[in-house]
Amino acid sequence: MASEKMLLGPMALKLADRILTIVATATLTSAAWIVGGGSFMRYAEDQKAAETTEATAEAAKTETVDPTPKVITREEPKLDTAEVSQPKAGQTDQLVVPVLNVRREDLTDTFTNERGEGASLHEALDIVADEGTTVLAAGPGEVEKIFTSEAGGKTLYIRSPDRQTIHFYAHLDEYAEGLQEGQRVRRGQRLGTVGSTGNADDEAPHLHFAILRTSADAEWWEPATAINPYPLLSGNNQRP
Ligand SMILES: [Zn+2]
User: Fold this and answer.
1) Cα(57) to centroid of ligand 1, in Å?
2) Least confident window among 63-72, 186-195, 206-215, 229-238
3) 94: confidence class by pLDDT, cuts 50, 70, 90
4) In angstroms, how far apart are the furthest CA atoms of the chain?
5) Ligand 1 center to residue 11 CA distance, Å?
6) Which among 119, 122, 138, 147 has the fewest CB atoms less than 10 Å away?
7) How far apart are CA 209 and CA 219, in angstroms?
8) β-strand 225-227 against 125-128: which pairing, if any?
């Protein structure tokens, strides 16, 4: 009997340890999920705070006690490997430069520019143009969110027809008249105008354009994998 108890003791402890580890992991994962996400999150964070405080509190409440499979499942798209995050062949090769009269050869690759003293990368393309220049839809999709944030100013989130990609437009001066959430847009459709709203330099109006690989059920503000728009827009796919 004594020896059985000796055995049971450590085993029970191990089980308790495992449960603690699971809970701690779930909590950390959810914390990373909440605070993480790179530059994209900074644009969405105001809205996230505003719209999801309830949801996050609810999630945090349940996750700590019960790390549900649902939470783990939702993490999967964010653990994208480079391979997974690559757009399918032919899917993004027909994008147009989303600023009127900017030629492909005029683009500069600013995707890996460092932001915040190297803490993060830009992960988007800045397309410089005069204020008021027409911003066009790079590809077809649906206006998922029209949102003004501190960093991004007037922003637009356009979801691709297959729901796997979001095109993000920021620092707009104005939205196209009548533009609404839920509206379908075609490639080349006028979305608004170039500006310097948000944290853009007033002296250097530009369109901040990001392509985010996400998953069909992920919300517009959730962290997503940014892919470099430069090769897709410049046609320089063959270059390293
Ligand atoms: Zn930018």
Assistant:
1) 31
2) 63-72
3) confident
4) 85
5) 54
6) 119
7) 18
8) unpaired
**Cα gap 183→178, rounded to integer Å:** 10
Cα 132 to middle of ligand 1, angstroms: 17
Separation of CA 140 and ligand 1 centre (Å): 22
The pLDDT value recorded for residue 44 is 64
Q: Which residue has the higher pLDDT, 81 or 212?
A: 212
Residues pairing with 190 in the sheet: 136
Q: Average pLDDT of the chain?
A: 75
112 CA from centroid of ligand 1 (Å) = 11
Query: Which segment of 33-42, 102-111, 159-168 scores lowest on mean pLDDT?
Result: 33-42
Residue 49 Cα, ligand 1 centroid: separation in angstroms? 22
**Domains, the chain, with CATH or none:** 2-78 (no CATH), 83-234 (2.70.70.10)
Question: What is the 58 CA–ligand 1 centroid distance (Å)?
Answer: 33
Please compute the mean of the pLDDT values over residues 194-213 and round it to a whole number. Answer: 97
**Distance (Å) from CA 24 to ligand 1 centroid:** 36
